[in-house]
Specification:
This protein is α/β, with parallel strands linked by helices. The protein contains 19 helices and 21 strands. It has a domain of 100 residues. α7 links the parallel β10 and β11. α6 runs parallel beside α7. The relative contact order is 0.16.
């Protein structure tokens, strides 16, 4: 007799083979048997999955849930959409290693932003993983070590090449993180301080992950105008180091770049034909990370509250012009990449001037016949700063990336225990990524069969990360499972209301424990910290 039996479900086992009806018996944390005979198994507890699909738990290969799990340990937004395993420490930023100088810089930055400094009571990469184990976690968590974090640990924010001694220390730091369980090295080539590194420096660090099969997960130097040059760098690093390259959240941003996806996919196929194990992940939305105008204005006028600032901008054209100049200067100093991308950012939601939604800021400035920064000022005033912007992708090209044989799915999001967007910059991918793939792309658009969609959510990422006992419904594998209604599954959030529970996900099991029952979180923290 099994501890738990899932009966009469339509089993989509993650391999890509045709679905079938049957039972699954679970003993402890693992799958005891997958039976093609419905009603053949008995257990101490039963879940009736009649009319529902049963699949492996979904694996998010690009998550920013690392620090978030300390304050959101139940990982509700992940479980609501069927995610049972996440891989964090992405885009060059991991929670370890950390030294006192880094803690001081983080505290200074928090003070400038007017928020509480982060509490960090660990130093090494491995100590952070131990901290997660102490707190407990609703999902399984694997981690990458961040290239930017390692550079910060050794050199701070110094804009220069490392000395031979500093480079050796970086390599040793990466080597130590790999010994402590890292799944590879992540890079955020547009973020500070990681973008200060040259390709030889990164290749040297990647040589430390190559022997164990670690992944080089790269947010590339460009996802728009210079995307092919960015691919050139990625391929150079892979060939020079021997590390397996991986493009994270693959996309082509900016309307002037739409049409480049086929050539990007061709480059990926050519790289694989040359012997590189290159793959990529993608999220199923046509807009990237959301930002608000509020941060721009308050960042350059911290002494004014929002009401006073709006009044000043409305009634003082000269003062508004000065704020525009200050905003541009501040962005150039703090985040020049964001400033460079500003013309391409699109308005994905605004409170009043709805006719400008889904236009780029450059297009809006042209419509108004004014400069870019003055147009941003105008949008802020007209909408009382209630404007959300993001880089926008082509719907057809997003579908191309999703359907491609070497893709898998990710959220590029954190995890939340609160069903509320407190930041004003939340993204519906936090709650809806995986149901959206199953609902919109597999069912509604017919872009790929259900079996292939599930494979991209489960066994493909499991294989990519070297998880030999997850990602399939198979005897002996860990019992990470999702029970969902293929007829109703889908995301429910929007730009305006991103923190909405998705539809159709009924049960989620993590390591044999029921973490979601009848669509509601049970409070189990059954996740494990995974080490390579």
């Amino acid at each position: 007799m099994f501890d738990l039996v899932i009966r009469n479900g339509t089993i989509v086992d993650g391999s890509g083979r045709a679905r079938f009806t049957g039972d699954i018996g679970i003993s402890g944390q693992r799958i005891g048997v997958v039976s093609p005979v419905p009603g053949s198994l008995t257990g101490s507890e039963h879940i009736d999955a009649g009319g529902l699909c049963v699949s492996p738990g979904f694996i998010d290969v690009h998550s920013h849930a690392d620090r978030a799990v300390l304050t959101n340990p139940y990982c509700k937004s992940s479980l609501f959409q069927g995610i049972t395993t996440v891989f964090a420490g992405q885009c060059g930023g991991s929670q370890g290693p950390v030294n006192d100088a880094m803690k001081e810089r983080a505290a200074e930055r928090a003070k400038r932003m007017g928020v509480e400094p982060p509490s960090v009571d660990w130093h090494s990469f491995g100590e952070f993983l131990g901290r997660i184990e102490d707190v407990g976690c609703g999902v399984n968590l694997g981690m990458f070590v961040g290239q930017g974090t390692v550079r910060n640990y050794v050199m701070g924010y110094e804009d220069r090449e490392p000395s031979a001694e500093e480079l050796d220390k970086m390599r040793l730091t990466v080597r130590d993180a790999m010994k402590e369980g890292a799944f590879g090295l992540s890079a955020g080539r547009t973020y500070m301080p990681g973008r200060l590194a040259g390709r030889e420096e990164i290749a040297a660090m990647c040589r430390e992950i190559a022997p164990s099969g670690g992944l080089y997960a790269c947010h590339m130097l460009s996802e728009g105008d210079a995307i092919h040059e960015a691919i050139d760098e990625l391929l150079y690093v892979a060939r020079a180091s021997g590390a397996r390259p991986h493009i994270v959240h693959a996309k082509v941003c900016g309307k002037q770049n739409w049409g480049k996806a086929p050539s990007v996919l061709e480059r990926i196929e050519q790289a694989r034909e040359s012997g590189l194990d290159l793959m990529f992940d993608v999220y199923p939305y046509i807009f990237a990370q959301i930002g608000t105008l509020r941060g721009i204005f308050t960042g350059v006028a911290p002494r004014l509250n929002i009401g006073e600032l709006l009044s000043a901008l409305r009634g003082d054209p000269e003062g508004a012009a000065q704020v525009a100049r200050d905003a541009e200067t501040e962005m150039a100093k703090i985040d020049p990449v964001r400033l460079r991308n500003l013309p391409q950012r699109g308005v994905v939601w605004c409170q009043n001037t709805r006719e400008h939604e889904w236009k780029s800021l450059e297009e809006i400035a042209a419509d108004l016949g004014i400069g870019l920064i003055p147009a941003v000022i105008w949008l802020g005033v007209e909408n009382h700063l209630a404007v959300k912007t993001a880089l926008i992708m082509s719907e057809n090209e997003v579908e191309m990336f999703i359907k491609h044989p070497f893709s898998m799915i990710s959220t590029d999001a954190s995890t939340q225990d609160v069903l509320e967007d407190k930041s004003g910059a939340g993204h519906p991918r936090t709650f809806g990524t995986y149901p959206r793939v199953l609902g919109r792309y597999a069912r509604d658009l017919g872009a790929l069969p259900l079996e292939d969609a599930v494979r991209k959510l489960t066994s493909v990422p499991a294989g990519r990360m070297g998880l030999s006992d997850r990602g399939l419904l198979k005897q002996g594998h860990f019992a990470d499972l999702v029970v969902f209604d293929r007829h109703t599954v889908g995301d429910s959030g929007s730009v305006e209301t991103p923190s909405e529970k998705p539809a159709g996900v009924k049960y989620v099991l993590v390591n044999g424990s029921v973490a979601l029952r009848d669509g509601e979180i049970t409070g189990e923290k059954a996740g494990k910290v995974l080490r390579r």
